[in-house]
Amino acid sequence: MCEQFVAHSERPFRIDELFPFIEKLEQFGIAGFGWGAAWLAGQDGPGCLVSHRDLRAFRDDPGRERVGRNQTTSLLVHLRRPSRMSTLTMADTQPFDDPAGRFAFSHNGDLRDYRARRRELQAAGRIHGRADTEVGERWLEDAWQPGLLVGNLLADLHRAFGGQANLALLSPDGSADHYAGNGENRVFTFQLGSIEIASTGIYSLDRSLFRFVAPTARSRGLVRLGSTAHLG
């Protein structure tokens, strides 16, 4: 029951430009139990993804000020409200970083059929937390191939596990993708200034995201279930 979004702009922007949006997404959504972000940091080398995670709410994390000072062109933010409170651990806090640096990944909803695969991964020593999202992350690590369309890969992940699942992925080339697979929390696209965004709603079966969270948004759209919004 988390909230998440990806953002992209052709011009670099400071991450704290989006802090008002993040604050309202956490306030009006079902979040506040940890948060994390991943962003493209070109100054650290071509195609370098950097991340930050904290068990506190976005509003309570003093580390957010350091994150906000960074400039980027592509960003992924995850605001957490786990379905199972027993997973409130750093190992389960999103987004997840691919060990090979190929992507950062986060998930909103529930992957229904993850338990059998989790047992296999746990036996192989590849599971560190308790949540279903980590199983999706390991699936992506194994399925990733150069040249694959991210939208197709995220749709394959959803088909593999089922359930209500929005899936967000940030790549080192600066592209950002948000797959819409959660009928209880739809994904919307819009612009805030020069920044393109694909974001979950606020678990409201209407467009209240634009009333309470992003009233100045332009170019508003709804991502069809089973489709992926691609930015960048």
Descriptive overview:
The chain is of the alpha+beta class and 232 residues long. Helix content is 22%, strand content 31%. The protein has a single domain, classed as Glutamine Phosphoribosylpyrophosphate, subunit 1, domain 1 (4-Layer Sandwich), CATH 3.60.20. It contains six helices and twelve strands. The strands form two sheets. Strands 3-2-4-1-10-9-11 form a seven-stranded antiparallel sheet. The longest helix has 12 residues, at 132-143. The two termini are 27 Å apart. 43% of the residues are buried.
Write the layout of secondary structure elements.
Layout: E1 3-14, H1 19-28, E2 35-40, E3 49-54, H2 64-68, E4 71-79, E5 96-97, E6 104-109, H3 115-123, H4 132-143, H5 150-161, E7 165-170, E8 176-179, E9 187-192, E10 195-200, H6 209-212, E11 218-222, E12 228-231
Antiparallel strand pairs: 1-4, 1-10, 2-3, 2-4, 5-6, 6-7, 7-8, 8-12, 9-10, 9-11
Short précis:
The protein is α+β, with helices and mostly antiparallel strands and 232 residues long. It has 6 helices and 12 strands.
